[in-house]
Amino acid sequence: MDVRRRFPKSAAASPSEVASVGGAAQVQASDALPLPIRHTNLLFSAIFAASLVFLMRRWREKIRTSTPLHVVGLSELLAIVGLVASLIYLISFFGITFVQSIVSSHDEDDFLLTHAPAAAPQPRPPSRGPNPAPAPAPRPLLCDAAPSPGKMPAVTEEDEEIIFSVVAGKTPSYILESKLGDCSRAAGIRREVLRRMTGRSLEGLPLDGFDYGSILGQCCELPVGYVQLPVGIAGPLVLDGRQYYVPMATTEGCLVASTNRGCKAIAESGGADSVVLRDGMTRAPAVRLPSARRAAELKAFLEEPSNFETLSVVFNRSSRFARLQGIQCALAGRNLYMRFSCSTGDAMGMNMVSKGVQNVLDYLQGDFPDMDMISISGNFCSDKKPAAVNWIEGRGKSVVCEATIKEDVVKKVLKTTVSALVELNMIKNLAGSAVAGALGGFNAHASNIVSAIFIATGQDPAQNVESSHCITMMEPVNDGKDLHVSVTMPSIEVGTVGGGTQLASQAACLDLLGVKGASLESPGANARLLATIVAGAVLAGELSLLSALAAGQLVKSHMKYNRSSKDISKAA
Question: E strands along 406-453, which residues?
Fold first, then answer.
C-alpha cells in the first residue's frame, strides 16, 4: 500500500514565501518562472514583435530579389523559433494557463512514496533517539476546499500521534470529536485510521464539504465521509389545488421520469385530492406480570375510560406537543403489550412518544409494583417491520389520495386505455399480491417513491417498510370513459423537524415543498402536508408504471433510461 505525503520544498521557508488558503500551501503559476510574471509577459511580447518585424522585412526583400522563401539562414531560423514560442505563450493568456499546466503536470514530483506491508500496519511511535533529525512540517490532515479526490492528504505530527493511539487501541475512535473539539478533523483522523487498519483508501468517498458538527449527537456516529446521491424533481404535482415540485433522491433510472409522467397526467386531468384520516405515532412497551390474571387486571385498568384522563395527564408531561390519543392492549400469556398512540406535532415523534410511555410506566409501577418492564418497545408498535397492526390500525399519518384521469389523457400521456389499466390493476395489484400473501403490498411500486422522497427530505429510510403500505384502486367512471385511481396509505411516518430534516441538503428539499420546520400556525400541519405529498407522488408513480406495463413499454424504457451508456469493460 502506498502512503502519499506532500512536503514543502524548504523546511525553513518563511511565511511570506508560502501563499496559504485555509492554512494549506498553494502553488502559484509564477513560482515556476525565473522572473516576475509581469516582466516575463513583457519579454515575450517584445520577442514576438521583434521576430515578426524581422521576418516580414526579410521576406519582403526575398520577394523583391526573387529569392525562394524556404531558403532560410540562421538568423531567420532563430526568429521563427522565437515567434512560435512567444505566440504559444501569449495565446495562453500571457502564460498563466500554460505555465500552470507545467506546474500541475509535475505536481506528483512533490510526493514521496513509502511502501508498507499489505497487513494492517502499526505506526511507528515518535523517535526518542538523541538529536533526531528535524522532520519537515507536513501539510494539515484535512485538504483544502478543493482537494483532489484521488489523493490522500498528509498527516501532521500531532495528528500522527493521535492516529497511532487509536490504531493501538489506547484512544477510542468515538471520543475523537469531544477530545479534539473539531468534528471535521475527527472525521479525517478516523478515516486515516481506517485506511491504515484495512489497507483501503476509500477513494471516491468525499470527506470535505460537509458540516460534521450538524450530525454530532443526533444523526450519525463515527463518520468518515458522506455518500452523494443525485436528486431529481418530479412535477408539478397538482394536489388539493396547489402545485408541488417533488424532490426524489435515487439511483434508479426511470423512476423520476416515470413519476414525472404521472404528475403530468394528474395535472392535465385537474389535479388530485387527499385526506388525512389519522395522525398518531405509536409505541408499545412489553411488561410481564406474575400471572395472566394479573396481566388481565392491568389491561382492564388501562382500557377503563375513567382512567384515561389521568393517564393522559401523566403522558402529556413529556412534551408540549405530545397528546395521548388511546391505548390498545394485547395479552400473550402473562405478558402484556400496551400500544400507546399520540399526536406529535411536526416531529415524526418516536422519541416523544417513548418519553410519554416511560412516564406512564413509572406511574403504573405505583399501583402494580409486581409489573416487570421487559422493553420500552415490544414490537406491537410496530416500527420498521411489516405488521398487520399498522396496516389495519394505522401508524403515523393515514392518507388517501385520489384523482380522476380523463380518457384522452390516458391515451395521449399514458399511452394506454382505461379498460387495460383497470384489468391490470385487478390482476396484478389485487389478485397477484393476494396470491403472494402480501401484507400492505397491494401496489405496483409505492416503496420506490416513498424511499426516494424519504432520503431527499431527511426522513428515516428504514421506516419505508411500513410507510410503503399501500393499496392502489382503479375503476372506470363516467360511463367507462375516465379512470378513477386512488392510493390508500395507512402508515406514512414523516416529520419536518428533528433527525435528518435539519441537515442542509434535506432542509433545502423540505423548503422546496414549503414544509420546512414546524408550523407556527397549526402544530403538525407541515408533517401532515408532507404525508399527503408523499401519497400524491405515489399516486403519480403508480399511474405511470401500470401504464407502462399495460402498454408493454417497461422493458424498453428501462433499457433506454436505466442502462449505462459507458463501456463497462473500459471502466473496469
Answer: 441-442
Closest CA to 267 of 248, 249, 247, 240: 240
Distance CA 123, CA 120 (A): 10
Sequence-ordered strand ranges (E) for 46-172: 111-115
Helices 305-316 and 350-367, interaxial angle, to 10°? 120
Distance CA 302, CA 325 (A): 13
Contact (Cβ atoms closer than 8 angstroms) between residue 498 and residue 538: no
| Residue where the block lists cell 512536503 | 7
DSSP H helix total and E strand total for the chain: 20, 15
Catalytic residues: 252, 384, 460, 558
Per-residue pLDDT tens for 190-217?
999 999 999 998 999 999 999 999 999 9
Distance of alpha carbon 327 from alpha carbon 309, whole angstroms: 12
pTM here is 0.72
Q: Which residues pair with 244 in a beta bridge?
A: 237
pLDDT digits (tens, 9 = 90+) for 466-519: 999 999 999 999 999 999 999 999 999 999 999 999 999 999 999 999 999 999
Cβ neighbours of residue 144 closer than 8 Å, sequence gap 6 or more: 21, 22, 24, 26
